[in-house]
């Protein structure tokens, strides 16, 4: 089996992640964090606190208590978008966004929030950055954008957008689902209002983990309420961070696994992981670029971890099934929950075949995939 | 008479943060369920030896800064007799 669907989830985890989760579940030591003063609860609470510290450290955030855990990036984005963006305003986003950004934004239209989209320039192979400033109007309150496109692998210039947000005093919400753990990111320096991440992709944790980092003095509103382990007689959910954004029992066992995943990223070093993925992405892109029948999408120079292509006019789902049935290569086909990318590239019906990598992807696997695509391309011709 | 400090926090996360900070400087207090007479409604507090008062208050002020109250508790040896509470306001 050859797994190239790491943008959906990294299937191979570092050994220590599995061991940490196994130990957490079988040790009979992990209680409910912040629900008691016995060691079961305290140890679980300490482990979750350590995970907060590691997330804050990895992403350059000075306040670990402004890290809130959720079950995935989608929940984090819902909290950030619905909890930060006011009613009756205008928001700028991009055509690269995933539905986890788009759908919460579309829902805000019920609160009279209007949207504008920054386009993608296929010739320059990047977002039309000049459009951001042109789209700003008097009632613009926020820019919401991805760190890395989940389809194209394009890295978005957050530095540029951050400066614009500071200049016009706009909220800056970043979807880090594809980039977290893969692309260098500094929350404090970029003055981001909410950075949303998932644990099960390039942080190598288990599914069911994710979260968001907000500013210490954030005015973000929580969208869930319930048990918090304190202030039981208050009718209102606690407003301290991270409690404001968390309610109920956390997924402690999995967060312990996520913690081990972050250790792996830090031990390997983000720089090494970055270089490794750049090398793999570039190698595959370079070879495919020289093949006539292959259409490649996205940036040749500013993309990482993901490569989207088509062979002739054949539907992407047919290519994906050929790759799986004949070569045991797992890729993702279709629209990848990013409809506006497909509008841009006019691939709504055809879709795209997406190869995506992890730190465990080898050069030999890349070579095998290249041979398989080449063989399919020749057969189709 | 037993005398000790209990630090009550606005957020349980400050409690776990405080415990870690104290451990790092070898202060061996412990987390306890927040006594209902100090603040009703669950939560975690940090109980520590009264003799470490100055060191603890300094550390709290420097590292936590806000969101806590410090109580000086006086209790009989049996723990069932009257309890005197003093709120320390030196740093917060």
TrEMBL record, chain A:
Provide the Aminotransferase class V domain boundaries. Answer: 3-368
Per the UniProt record, one Pfam family is: Aminotran_5
Judging by the UniProt lineage, the source's domain of life is Bacteria
So which cofactors does this thing need? pyridoxal 5'-phosphate
Xref: InterPro entries: Aminotrans_V_dom, Aminotrans_V_PyrdxlP_BS, Cys_dSase-rel_unknwn_funct, PyrdxlP-dep_Trfase, PyrdxlP-dep_Trfase_major, PyrdxlP-dep_Trfase_small
Name the PROSITE patterns for this protein. Answer: AA_TRANSFER_CLASS_5
Q: Which UniProt keywords apply?
A: Aminotransferase, Pyridoxal phosphate, Transferase
Is Transferase set as a keyword in this record? yes
Q: Which GO terms describe its molecular function?
A: transaminase activity
Q: Which NCBIfam families match?
A: am_tr_V_EF2568
Family assignment?
Answer: Belongs to the class-V pyridoxal-phosphate-dependent aminotransferase family.
What's the protein called, per UniProt? Aminotransferase class V-fold PLP-dependent enzyme
UniProtKB/TrEMBL annotation, chain B:
Q: Which domain of life is it from?
A: Bacteria
Could you tell me which species this protein originates from?
A: Vagococcus intermedius
Name of the protein this chain belongs to: DUF3343 domain-containing protein
Q: Which Pfam families match?
A: Se_S_carrier
InterPro entries to which the protein is assigned, alphabetical: Se/S_carrier-like
- List each copy of the Putative Se/S carrier protein-like domain by range: 4-63
């Amino acid at each position: 089996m050859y797994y190239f669907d790491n943008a959906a989830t990294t299937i191979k985890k570092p050994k220590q992640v599995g061991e940490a989760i196994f130990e957490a579940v079988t040790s009979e030591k992990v209680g409910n964090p912040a629900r008691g003063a016995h060691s079961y609860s305290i140890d679980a609470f300490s482990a979750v606190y350590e995970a907060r510290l590691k997330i804050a450290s990895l992403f350059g955030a000075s306040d670990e208590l402004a890290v809130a855990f959720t079950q995935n990036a989608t929940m984090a984005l819902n909290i950030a978008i619905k909890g930060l963006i006011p009613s009756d305003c205008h928001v700028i986003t991009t055509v690269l966004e995933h539905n986890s950004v788009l759908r919460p934004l579309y829902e805000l239209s019920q609160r009279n929030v209007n949207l504008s989209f920054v386009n993608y320039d296929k010739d320059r192979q990047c977002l039309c950055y000049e459009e951001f400033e042109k789209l700003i109007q008097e009632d613009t309150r926020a820019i919401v954008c991805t760190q890395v496109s989940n389809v194209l692998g394009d890295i978005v210039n957050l530095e540029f957008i951050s400066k614009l947000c500071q200049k016009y005093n706009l909220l800056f919400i970043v979807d880090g689902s594809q980039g977290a753990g893969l692309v260098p990111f500094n929350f404090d320096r970029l003055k981001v209002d909410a950075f949303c991440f998932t644990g099960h992709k390039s942080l190598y944790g288990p599914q069911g983990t994710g979260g968001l980092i907000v500013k210490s003095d954030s005015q973000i509103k929580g969208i869930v309420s319930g048990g918090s382990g304190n202030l039981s007689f208050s009718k209102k959910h606690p407003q301290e961070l991270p409690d404001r954004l968390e309610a109920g029992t956390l997924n402690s066992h999995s967060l312990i696994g996520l913690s081990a995943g972050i250790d792996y990223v830090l031990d390997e070093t983000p720089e090494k992981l970055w270089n490794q993925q750049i090398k793999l992405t570039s190698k595959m892109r370079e070879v495919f670029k020289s093949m006539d029948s292959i259409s490649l999408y996205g940036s040749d120079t500013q993309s990482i971890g993901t490569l989207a292509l088509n062979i002739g006019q054949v539907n992407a789902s047919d290519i994906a099934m050929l790759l799986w049935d004949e070569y045991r290569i797992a890729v993702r086909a279709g629209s990848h929950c990013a409809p506006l990318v497909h509008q841009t590239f006019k691939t709504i019906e055809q879709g795209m075949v997406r190869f995506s990598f992890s730190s465990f992807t080898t050069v030999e696997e890349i070579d095998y995939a290249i041979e398989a695509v080449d063989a399919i391309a020749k057969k189709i011709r | 008479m037993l005398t000790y400090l209990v630090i009550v926090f606005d957020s349980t996360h400050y409690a776990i943060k405080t415990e870690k900070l104290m451990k790092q400087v070898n202060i061996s207090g412990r987390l306890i369920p927040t006594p209902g007479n100090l603040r009703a409604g669950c939560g975690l507090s940090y109980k520590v030896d009264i003799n470490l008062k100055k060191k603890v208050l300094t550390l709290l002020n420097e590292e936590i800064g806000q969101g806590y109250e410090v109580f000086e508790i006086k209790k009989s040896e049996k723990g069932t007799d009257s309890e005197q509470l003093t709120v320390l306001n030196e740093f917060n």
